[in-house]
């Protein structure tokens, strides 16, 4: 399945789950800031993705909630440290960290949850045969 | 006090679906104000009954040990419901995980569809509750106990011999 095929399906799911218009959903849309997703919506989206794509998506796999757990190695003065960035990349390998690295404020992590993140995650999962 | 907006549990198929009924009587207080001279069952109370039906279905999946909390609902209504009608609430379990569940609910009067809803429930654990809360298992308690017993007794017995 191509990126565009997956994106089209993901867009329909987001239209249903978040009650948004189709043209509001682009690859760069941030789920919270742009599409107004709340925390329960992330669970709703995961359920719908599992059905649509026939996958099991383990908790914390696509949308990790507690990456740093207040660990001082990862966060200092509200900024994600270099070690934290490495951890973030490890936990969210599908996220594009380019812009985040320029200003790694802890509260900007939620901006990493984009439509593109979902599509890239699914691309990778669908390329791997089911366990 | 807890508002119970189901009159009777008819059927509970664990992990699949639940069916309950609500009878609408003009003697119920809310009809006096909603609306004077034109009694209509408030849509929010139909959803409450549907969510209670679905919530018990979800709660049963973990033996009522987890708090099941209504977190999100998307509903469409076909028409108003009036005194004298009996609403049948059917909840079908779509998804279930440690974090929560998704249920599809419908409300019918006879064969006629009154409302349908997609309902998200969250499982709320002790760590998400305020520490001063006396009873960390606060959902399936008290006045709901009778309804839970009714729900449990509405589980059909397995067919003997041949499959159904």
From TrEMBL, chain A:
Keywords: Fatty acid biosynthesis, Fatty acid metabolism, Lipid biosynthesis, Lipid metabolism, Phosphopantetheine, Phosphoprotein
GO biological process: lipid A biosynthetic process
Gene3D superfamilies named in the record: ACP-like
Domain spans labelled Carrier: 4-79
GO cellular component: cytosol; membrane
Source superkingdom: Bacteria
Annotated protein name in UniProt: Acyl carrier protein
From TrEMBL, chain B:
GO molecular function: lyase activity
SUPFAM superfamilies: Thioesterase/thiol ester dehydrase-isomerase
InterPro entries the record matches: FabA_FabZ, HotDog_dom_sf
Gene3D superfamilies: Hotdog Thioesterase
Keywords: Lyase
Short name of one Pfam family: FabA
Protein name: Beta-hydroxyacyl-ACP dehydratase
Gene source species: Thermogemmata fonticola
């Amino acid at each position: 399945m191509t990126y565009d095929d997956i994106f089209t399906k993901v867009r329909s799911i987001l239209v249903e789950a978040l009650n948004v218009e189709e043209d509001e959903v682009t690859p760069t849309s941030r789920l919270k800031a742009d599409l107004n997703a709340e925390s329960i919506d992330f669970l709703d989206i995961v359920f719908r993705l599992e059905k649509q794509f026939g996958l099991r998506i383990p908790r914390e796999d696509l949308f990790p909630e507690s990456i740093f757990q207040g660990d001082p190695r990862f966060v200092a003065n509200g900024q994600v440290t270099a070690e934290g960035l490495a951890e973030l990349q490890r936990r969210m390998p599908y996220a594009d960290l380019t812009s985040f690295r320029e200003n790694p404020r802890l509260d900007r992590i939620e901006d990493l949850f984009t439509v593109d993140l979902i599509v890239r995650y699914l691309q990778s999962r669908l390329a791997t045969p089911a366990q | 006090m807890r508002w119970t907006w189901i009159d009777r549990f008819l059927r509970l198929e664990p992990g699949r679906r639940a069916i309950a009924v609500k009878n609408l009587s003009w003697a119920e207080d809310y009809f006096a104000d909603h609306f004077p001279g034109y009694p209509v069952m408030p849509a929010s109370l139909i959803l409450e009954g549907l969510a209670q039906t679905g919530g018990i279905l979800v709660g049963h999946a973990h033996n009522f040990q987890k708090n099941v909390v209504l977190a999100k609902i998307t509903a469409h209504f076909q028409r108003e419901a009036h005194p004298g009608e009996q609403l049948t609430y059917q909840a079908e379990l779509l998804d279930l995980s440690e974090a929560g569940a998704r249920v599809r609910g419908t409300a019918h009067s006879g064969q006629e569809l009154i409302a349908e809803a997609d309902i998200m429930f969250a499982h709320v654990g002790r760590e998400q509750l305020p520490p001063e809360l006396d009873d960390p298992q606060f959902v399936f308690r008290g006045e709901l106990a009778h309804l839970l017993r009714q729900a449990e007794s509405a589980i059909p017995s397995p067919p003997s011999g041949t499959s159904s």
